[in-house]
Structure formats: structure tokens, C-alpha cells
TrEMBL record:
Xref: PANTHER family: ACYL-COA SYNTHETASE, ACYL-COA SYNTHETASE SHORT-CHAIN FAMILY MEMBER 3, MITOCHONDRIAL
Naturally occurring in which organism (per UniProt): Reinekea marina
Stretches of the chain forming a coiled coil according to its record: none
Domain of life: Bacteria
Pfam family name, one: AMP-binding
Lineage, uppermost ranks: Bacteria, Pseudomonadati, Pseudomonadota, Gammaproteobacteria, Oceanospirillales
Name the record gives this protein: AMP-binding protein
Amino acid sequence: MSYKNVHLAATSNPDQFWLEQAKQIAWFKKPSLGYQQNSDGSDSWFADGELNTAYLALDAHVEAGRGQQTALIYDSPLTKTKKQYSYQQLLDEVAQCAGMLTNYGVQKGDRVLVYLPMIPQAVIAMLACARIGAIHSVVFGGFAAKELAVRLDDATPKLLLTATGGLEPNKTIDYQPLIQEALDLAQHQPSAVLIWSRPEIPLTAAFDLWQDALQQASPASFVRLKSTDPLYILYTSGTTGTPKGVVRDNGGHAVAMAYSMSALYNCHVGDVYWAASDVGWVVGHSYIVYAPLIKGCTTVLYEGKPVGTPDAGAFWRVCEEYNVKLLFAAPTAFRAIKKADPEGQLVSKFNLASLNTIFMAGERLDPATLAWTQQHTNKLVVDHWWQTETGWAIAGNPLGIEPFPVKPGSSSLPLPGYKVEILNHVGQPCQAMEQGFIALKRPLPPGCLQTIWKNSARFESSYLTQFPGYYASGDGGYLDEEGYLFVMGRIDDVINVAGHRLSTGEMEAVLSEHPSVAECAVIGVQDELKGQVPLALVVLKDGVYTCAQTLEHELIAQIRAEIGAIACLKQAHIVDRLPKTRSGKILRATLRKVANKEAYSVPSTIDDPAILEEIKHQLTDASA
Ligand code: COA
Ligand code: AMP
């Protein structure tokens, strides 16, 4: 079937289409129901189906005779370790870990917080939770103690799984004081903290030792779960200071994972699939752990960077060494490689014969990075657009259905199941080529968020009320005459820093705690390497006189301490006042244009038009 026909089938009769796709996975009880909206407003798929996601990812392959096939390759240039797990070995480790969780009283529906670096225990812990029906919530290792505390209080986990620390080029991050600080800050206390002792970072905390606890456990079998039982909660930045706990189900997710591996990535049993992301992000959940394993592929867990571990040839070395068929990473990683190896000399050192396609996501793939990657690798390079909320791509090049020519700047076509429309501010459809809000007509396909953890009202207000009948993506863009989607960026207060999604509202809340700050605005400015970086404009309290440099250092330190180094706040400028509407709303969109040195028109609602010129001059003076 052509892409057009498949897309039409999925949008005109979603239940029939997805019940057919659901046959790809081994249910314990096959579903007869498709999409349903629950009374609390949450979404569900395949409500009467029963399955277990860890069974699909491991046991089903062993039962099918693939026990000796490599399931997981761990490659860590940071620790100089390489290790491979067959499906049988990974299953044994996961079952043992599941038994350990059971010994700690973890049961179906309990939450387990996972704060781990890129080591196999992260994958094992996630699958062990899935095996016994516990809901994991993985927190990215780059987040500071306060972020961890917020998640502890929201998810109220029974157990916290962690390690002695993570490694970054030229430094180690000792997690132990950080975990203790998070526990001190949080209201909710898990009943135990289990710590994996890494040889590189000494154990100092008095938490229970994971290695010992494993010895005392017996392997646990998988449990039967309802399709709608939550598999995980993953927190993501919204426009306010409090992160949103995206809830993902078991059944819809498994079907979407399996479907996307073939329809979008054209990957099948035995292929080596490498998502060079982190398990703490949605890309890591979906395409390091679940989708490749559900599909019976080999997945790569890479603890390293695109550059500096040891050089810009690292990605190509991994592709050659493990016969990677598909590489998926953020454009920022390729910009870093391009900067270090502009002529592609390191690319040509490696044999990339196995590599078919390079997929990118996390931010818009800029045409210059696309061109460099195409030129130096000679591979098909595909941009695809998605979000933590959707769990898999909304738009992309459906290689397993019908490959389309690549258009620079576009993430290609809406995938089957997604009805993408461009709406203006009153919810009317835009013409082709006209920019507007990117909205998805409901129902969303399987795999997308069910709701926000313990907050269905926030699910409604964040996504469903702006355009009734649609999911508002928070991104702006347009469709061209051929139906290609061009995503131009967030239209809310979320920014993307090196492929990491961060909330400027959250940064503003942190900066406002500083005793000298009366008010502030944080905006995203363009950055050659990271795509965007935050810039803070602060107004001092009356009567406060402080050295601008000292204040800047203090504010930067505050963001690092409360959100984490990944926020990458490097600039904070004191300004006399901020531009506001007459009703007192800060004009952030206009500020963004001023800071990015783009042309701007003075909004008619502005309180005092002179402020914009003042800020423009202050920023020019500061950068001089
Ligand atoms: N744990 C602890 N700290 C972390 C961390 C982690 N997992 N990841 C990053 N950090 C820290 C870094 O050490 C750095 O700290 P510093 O300011 O003290 O030096 C800071 O956060 C910023 O790190 P990073 O964003 O990695 O910037 P960089 O300049 O070191 O590297 C890139 C730039 C482009 C190489 C890097 O950002 C990168 O690999 N990006 C790809 C991101 C990605 O895959 N995103 C997934 C989305 S699909
Ligand atoms: P996250 O939830 O961390 O995956 O971030 C999702 C956001 O990243 C989206 O809402 C977009 O703003 C941005 N994004 C992800 N992929 C792309 C892409 N291919 N093109 C443009 N923006 C993207």
C-alpha cells in the first residue's frame, strides 16, 4: 500500500487500523477494543487487551529461538568498557532484578524512581519494573537534587534505584550527596534507596547495596497487565515551573513501538539499531530500550559523547564496530562533530557499509547540518519530529512504507495515525505555506500519553482546551503544498538546549529566588552548537546595587544547583525594566527577537515602546 493509502486508512478508521497493527505483538489476551476516552478525560487504547512489555522485549524472543542473539551492546569510552548481552542473558538479569524489587515490597502499580547513568543497570531496571508491573520514572542524570526532589514528591515512589555516580569527560559526578540532598528536600521518602556501586566512583553513602540485594533475590516471572496499566511516568518541561509527568500505557506503547520500527525506521529482527541519546529522555525510553527490543533488534547503549571521547570519530567507530544499520541522534551532536571534523576526515577512516540511515530529532535539523552529514557519510539522512508526550514520531519519512525525497528544513510527512493540521490563533485552518500552531486531531494514535500523572486537569488545560477536538503540540510551523511539515520551533516558553527540553518558566522561578531580583525573563537565543541557549534579563529590587558580574555568577550557580549544568545558562543581564503589555504580561516573543537580533514590530499592546530599544542597547553594550 502507498503511504497515502496507509495514512488514509489510519485516520479514517483508527480502531480497525490499529487493531490490525496490534496483531504484530504477542498479547496474552488479544484486544477487541480500539480507542476510548475515559470519564476522567484520559485516553486509552486496547482496553480489554492483556500483555507484559518486558515479556515482549525479552521472553518472547527467547521463546522464538533468539536467545543467543545479542540484545544489548554496552559501549563506554568513558570507562573503556565493552559488554554484550544476549536476549537470554538480558532476560536472566532482568528477572533477577525483578526478584530484587519484589523483595523490597514493590508490587504492581508501585512507582520506582530510577536515577542512573548510561550503564546496563538502567535498561535492566526499567525492564524489571515492567516485568512486575511497577511504574518506572527515570530521571536524567544531569538533573540537580531539587529536580529529583520534585519528582520524588510527585511520583511518590516506593524505591529509588541509583548508582554511585555518572561520568562526564574529564570529571565524575558523584550522585551520593545529590541523592541525599534530594531526600532532604522531598516530603516523600521512598522506603529504600538501592545503589549500584561503580568501580570508578567509590561508595560512600549508607544506602542498600544493589549488588548485595541481587544476591539475595530469586528470579521473578512476568505478570499479566492490562493494556491500560501504566508502564512509566516520564517528566518533561512545561511552561510552568512544575514538570509534567507524562503517563505511558503498556499496550498502546508496545504496538506503537513495534509499528514505528518497521513503518518508519524500516528495521527488523536482527538489525542493529543505535539511538545515541540518554535513557533519561523519551528517545532513550523508546529507542534505546523498548522499541528495538520489542522488535528483536540489537540495541546499543553508548556511554560517551559525540566528540571528546576520544574524538569526533566516536560515532563512526561505533557504527563500524557493531554493524549499526540505523543511527539516531540529535542535530546538535552532528554540529559538534562537524565543528571538530569539518572536512569529514574522521568519517572517511571508518567502514560505514552497514549503516543505512541516519535519523535526527530533538530539534529542527538545520539545512547546513543536513548537507554536511549527507555529504560526508553518503547516507540517507532523515529529520523526524516528535515529543515526550507522543513517545514516537509525529512526522517523518516512512521508509518502511514508501520512502520520500528529503526536503531540507522539513521533518517530512505526518505518520499514519497522526492528523496534523495548522491552525491560526482562533482555531481556523491555515493555507499551505502559512505558519500557525501545529495541532493534532484527536484521537492521537497508540503510544501517546494517556494523561498527566495525578493531574488529568493539567492534561486538559495543557493540551486539549486551546483547540477543542485537537491536541495542541506547543510547536509552530507550516505544511507545504505537497503535505511536508516544517516545524519552526516552540510557540510557548519551552526551549531546546542541545536537544534537551527545558522550561524558561522554571528558570525564571529559580532566578526570582535570588534576594536582589525583583523580576526576570528567560528567553532562548540562537546558538551555533546547541541550537538554543537561555539568556536571562533581570530587574533588580529597588535600592539594590550590586556588581553585575557577581550577580551573573550567582545566578548561573543557582541554576546549576537547582536545575543542573545542562541548562547551560551562561548569560544574565541586568536591565532597568522588562517590556510588558498594559495588562502586565512580559512580551517574551518580542524579547526573543530583540535578543536574537531579528527584525521585530512593536506590539500594539505594549505598555511603553521605548523599553525594547533600551534593552536592545543594553544587550549590544553587554556583548561589546
Ligand atoms: N550527568 C551530569 N551532568 C551532565 C550530563 C549528565 N548525564 N550531561 C551533561 N551534563 C553536564 C555537562 O558535564 C556540562 O557541564 P559543565 O557545564 O560543568 O561543563 C553541562 O551539563 C552541559 O553539557 P552538554 O549539554 O553535554 O554540553 P557540552 O558542551 O559538554 O557538549 C554536545 C555538547 C553537543 C556534545 C552535547 O550536548 C551532546 O552530546 N548533545 C546531544 C544531546 C542528546 O543526545 N540529546 C538527546 C535528545 S534526542
Ligand atoms: P522532547 O519532549 O524533549 O522530545 O522535546 C520535544 C520538542 O523538541 C518538540 O516540541 C519540538 O519543539 C522539538 N523537536 C523535536 N524534534 C524536532 C524536529 N525534528 N524538528 C523540530 N523540532 C523538534
